[in-house]
């Protein structure tokens, strides 16, 4: 459930980079280790990395697919042996784990053959090791998925904690990637000691490394260990599947205590409803609201590292006055690019699903319902964007007019993306979904908004640069602000006229 | 209270509602009866302003659904056959949402929630997320949300499905009280015994067309409602 488009994209990107990166990729490790006779250590470490990727890549899917599947009751009521249901579920878990594990394992094999020379027998053995590795990945994934299910059942703010865990994992990934060169250098400098460590602390993977370089006995040992893990997992799951699938691990019942309430307006009720829907779904927040977290992080990072950023800029732009004139443009572009990660409005109409009748049967003007969706996007994006923008302008030492222009471009862009997402969803709504990941991940509006807004920014950047050759840089940015604001206003007018009519026509 | 004149609603080539005309006066409980797919839900949704219609006119408390949908919606409450509510809210959050939308003053709202919640035995569950509710609990919550803003006309689509016998009895009591207070109720049902005992008026629809309507005595005569309905369906 938690593996969202961005994460998947990031993992795919990792696979390509893992092979090619000269400093931190498989190729650089293979160059150093394979010719020096450390092939077993190389593959042992690759197997460990592949295991980590396979497990992290598929653990949340396992949690959702194996332990939280909504059709378990239905399938169990049919004349299907529970073991078959479990087998079908585990197959999808294993395939997903294999996919993510392959992002590391395949580049590792390629890098090995580039440095050791191609030979078919080791290749067959390496692919065989990969298959047994997938068994280990599946076993570990099922175990971790079970732990995630147990923890999740006892959490109150599941969606926020899921988002937080995802962000921590994401940050950890970049920290590790940033320090990969240093870690790699340390491994290369102490290859023998690292080898001893792997042999004693990760014995199965040391054997996997041995199998991958062509020794049959280590391969056999690894195959037996991995198969045992998989068999043990199967036996445990088969025995407990019905209990797992049918037990409701609800949180403790919260008893209602009457509290004083305040009467709110229609607008505020609709806004709170949209906010509640957004914050109650980790999938919605991760797929459509990561920009808010990144903009906030950007503002905080700029505040903390203001001195270093200023020094770096001074060093970089020493004597480069022409480039300095484009600082507001660069700041606006970066802030808009980050804000474009938010596409909260793009699935917002579809997210109403079967509950659309509620607002439609209430005395609510269609425009008010749509405005609440726009408002949520704008509030959650513009506040951190302006905060990051103000900090950015101060740190970069931009003049007041340049700062105001930068912030205007940002604000106009956010209103534009909010409106565009809503327009797209009204033109292409999906109200008949049974799983919220459908409107959030597999929908045209979300896809178009994610890539379309980046495309729009690229075109706008090129246009602004071209315009700056004719006008001054400040005037070109002002023109961009006017143009973006104009687009935003046009879309808002369309929403008020055609959009409300489309909304009224939904559901019949 | 409700006036439907020559209502027509088509889905593609199919006429779901075909020239339907009916009246419901204040104080009346009107049962809407017909086989599956006869056009009951379509009619109720059109009156609630959820579905647009091709021709005809619907007036609620004198206001046109087409011309003045907000006034119409302020005067009515709608409970669908399958109460898909906001799973991401708790029961009390949902009731407060409805209260805010209909402008129910805070004190009045709290009293209504307390009274209705207690009657349906749902008060202690109001802090629970709706996602944890059973079908019957959702149905009870939908009923409470319909009643808290004191609508003049209440539209209900199969309201007794999923309710336990006590809740069903309570709902019948509430319906009666509502009509005694000058309100009106228009509800669809397949349970003819309930309709027979509860309704002042009955409307039978077949393939979108009205086939019989009137007071209960007028429609059934000396026979039972079931035999009249079965006869009309043949």
Helix-and-strand structural type of chain A: mainly alpha
Beta-strand percentage range of chain A: under 5%
Largest interface: A-B, 38 and 46 residues
Read across the widest sheet of chain B, the strand sequence of neighbours is 6-7-8-3-9-10
Shape of chain B: globular
The total beta strand count of chain B reads: 10
Helicity range of chain A: over 70%
Report the sheet with the most strands of chain A, covering strand number, pairing sense and barrel closure: none
User: Which consecutive residue ranges of chain A, at least 5 long each, have pLDDT under 50?
Assistant: none
- Report the biggest beta sheet of chain B as strand number plus sense, adding barrel if it closes: 6 strands, mixed
What is the level-2 CATH architecture name of the domain at 2-85 and 155-233 in chain B? 3-Layer(aba) Sandwich
Mean pLDDT of chain B: 92
* Secondary-structure element pattern of chain B, one letter each: EEEHEEHEHHHEHEHEEHH
Secondary structure tally: strands of chain A: 0
Task: Give the low-pLDDT segments of chain B.
Answer: none
Helix content of chain B: 25-40%
CATH topology of the domain at 2-85 and 155-233 in chain B: Rossmann fold
What does this protein structure show overall?
The complex is a heterodimer of chains A (508) and B (234). Helices cover 80% and strands 0% of the residues of chain A. With 508 residues, chain A is mainly alpha-helical. Chain A folds into two domains: 5-246, no CATH class; 266-505, no CATH class. The two termini of chain A are 32 Å apart. Chain B has nine helices and ten strands. Chain B is globular, with a radius of gyration of 17 Å. In chain B, helix 4 runs antiparallel to helix 5 (135-147). Chain B has a domain at 2-85 and 155-233: 3-Layer(aba) Sandwich (Rossmann fold). In chain B, strand 1 and strand 2 form a beta hairpin. In chain B, strands 6-7-8-3-9-10 form a six-stranded mixed β-sheet, with helices on both faces. A four-stranded antiparallel β-sheet of chain B has the order 2-1-4-5, with helices on one face. Chain B is of the alpha/beta class and 234 residues long. The chains are: A mainly alpha (508), B alpha/beta (234). The interface between A and B is large, with 38 and 46 residues.
């Amino acid at each position: 459930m938690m593996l969202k488009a961005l994460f998947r994209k990031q993992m795919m990107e990792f696979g390509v980079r893992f092979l090619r990166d000269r400093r931190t990729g498989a190729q650089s490790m293979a160059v150093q280790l394979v010719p020096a006779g450390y092939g077993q250590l190389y593959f042992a470490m690759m197997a460990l990395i592949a295991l980590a990727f396979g497990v992290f890549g598929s653990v949340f899917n396992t949690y959702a697919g194996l332990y939280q599947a909504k059709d378990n009751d239905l399938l169990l009521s049919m004349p299907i042996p529970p073991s078959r249901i479990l087998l079908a579920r585990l197959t999808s878990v294993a395939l997903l784990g294999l996919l993510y594990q392959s992002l590391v394992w395949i580049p590792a094999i390629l890098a090995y053959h580039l440095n050791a020379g191609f030979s078919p027998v080791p290749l067959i053995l390496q692919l065989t090791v990969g298959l047994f590795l997938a068994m280990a990945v599946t076993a570990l994934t099922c175990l971790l998925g079970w732990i995630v299910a147990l923890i999740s059942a006892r959490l109150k703010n599941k969606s926020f904690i899921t988002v937080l865990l995802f962000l921590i994992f994401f940050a950890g990934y970049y920290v590790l990637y940033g320090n990969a060169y240093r870690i790699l250098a340390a491994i290369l400098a102490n290859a023998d000691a690292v080898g001893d460590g792997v042999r004693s602390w990760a014995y199965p993977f040391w054997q996997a490394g041995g199998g991958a370089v062509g020794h049959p006995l280590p391969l056999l040992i690894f195959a037996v260990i991995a198969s045992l893990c998989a068999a043990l997992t199967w036996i445990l799951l088969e025995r407990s599947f019905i209990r797992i699938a049918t037990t409701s691990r609800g949180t403790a019942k919260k008893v209602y205590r009457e509290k004083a309430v305040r009467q709110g307006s229609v607008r505020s009720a609709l806004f709170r409803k949209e906010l509640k829907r957004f914050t109650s779904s980790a999938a919605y927040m991760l797929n459509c609201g990561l920009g808010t977290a990144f903009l906030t992080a950007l503002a905080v990072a700029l505040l903390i590292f203001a001195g270093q950023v200023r020094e770096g800029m001074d060093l970089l732009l020493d004597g480069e006055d022409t480039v300095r004139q484009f600082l507001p443009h660069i700041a606006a572009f970066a802030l808009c690019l980050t804000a474009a990660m938010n596409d909260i409005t793009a699935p917002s109409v579809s997210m109403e699903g079967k509950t659309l009748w509620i607002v439609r049967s209430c005395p609510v003007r269609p425009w008010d319902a749509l405005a609440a969706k726009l408002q949520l996007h704008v509030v959650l994006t513009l506040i951190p964007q302006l905060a990051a923008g103000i900090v950015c302008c101060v740190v970069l030492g931009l003049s007041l007019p340049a700062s105001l222009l930068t912030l205007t471009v940002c604000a106009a862009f956010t209103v534009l993306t909010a409106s565009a997402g809503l327009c797209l969803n009204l033109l292409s709504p999906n109200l008949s979904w049974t799983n919220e990941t459908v409107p959030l991940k597999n929908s045209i509006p979300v896809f178009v908004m994610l890539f379309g807004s980046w495309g729009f920014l690229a075109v706008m950047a090129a246009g602004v640069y071209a315009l700056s050759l004719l006008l001054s840089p400040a005037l070109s940015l002002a023109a961009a602000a006017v143009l973006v604001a104009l687009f935003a206003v046009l879309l808002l007018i369309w929403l008020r006229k055609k959009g409300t009519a489309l909304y009224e026509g939904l559901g019949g | 209270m409700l006036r439907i004149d020559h209502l027509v609603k088509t889905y593609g080539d199919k006429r779901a509602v075909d020239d339907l005309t009916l009246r419901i006066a204040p104080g009346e409980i009107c049962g809407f009866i017909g086989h599956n797919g006869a056009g009951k839900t379509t009619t109720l949704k059109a009156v609630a302003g959820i579905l647009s219609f091709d021709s005809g006119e619907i007036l609620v408390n004198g206001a046109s659904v087409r011309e003045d949908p907000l006034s119409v919606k302020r005067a009515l409450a709608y409970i669908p056959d399958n109460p898909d509510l906001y799973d991401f809210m708790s029961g009390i959050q949902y009731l407060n949402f409805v209260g805010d939308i209909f402008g129910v003053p805070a004190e009045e709202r709290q009293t209504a929630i307390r009274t209705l919640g207690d009657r349906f035995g749902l008060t202690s569950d109001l802090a629970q997320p709706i996602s944890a509710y059973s079908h019957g609990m959702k149905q009870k919550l939908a009923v409470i949300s319909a009643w808290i803003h004191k609508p003049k006309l209440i539209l209900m689509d199969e309201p007794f499905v999923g309710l336990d016998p006590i809740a069903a009895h309570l709902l019948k009591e509430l319906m009666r009280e509502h009509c005694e207070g000058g309100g009106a109720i228009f509800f669809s049902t397949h349970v003819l015994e309930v309709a027979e005992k509860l309704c002042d008026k009955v409307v039978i629809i077949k393939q979108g067309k009205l086939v019989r309507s009137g007071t209960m005595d007028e429609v059934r005569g000396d026979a039972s409602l079931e035999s009249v309905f079965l006869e009309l369906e043949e």
